[in-house]
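EI: anyone free to look at a 213-residue chain?
SC: sure, send it
EI:
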Amino acid sequence: MAAVHGLDAISLIAAKPIRPTDQQRWTDWLVAHADSHGGELWRLLDPAPAGRPGAGHSHVVHLPTSSSADFDAATELARDAVGGGAAHVEIQRDGWRRAGDGLQTDSTTDVTGLIIAHVLCADPRRTDEWDAWYDQQHLPDMMGSDAFVAGSRWRRAEPRTGGANHLTIYEVAGISVGEAIERSAAVMPQLVAEGRKHDSHAGGLTWALERVR
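SC: here you go
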């Protein structure tokens, strides 16, 4: 597979099948089209934790941005071919560009899970300071948790007012996504105690994803 850290720009598509009964048919259909366009299909883990509303989608496709138009055309053809039974609803589609070099601790391409964190600086006046902190301290701290084989930062190609215009994508291999979450969470109390968390850092949605086949 093409690891996320090997791409300079991506399109992320959050989607779900129109009818839950078509889940397997839709998954098979979408896997084939993601793969043929150089992307991957990921399943959202725990989409509706107890006491919280669901994320609204069940899967995420990541594609090289250059493939997005071809992927859309193939998707429309596929819908016609299967009589609409595998059609899906797109919850959102966003383009992202690399921000910084990222970090990689393992050259493996056998990435089986992703943690995608939507983040932002809560004080726009300190964005440059926050940006430097993220690259120079926070990303290395997270990579030091032994939870991930690669970490990369991304900026929304078309920024939104009042939204999280930054992503961090952590790639998981060799352990489960659940274990990666536990390992990365375990280092946070000490980082906070040592003053290594920027006071303007704010988190938005976090997606825990596992690769589909």
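EI: The longest strand covers residues 88-98.
SC: 👍
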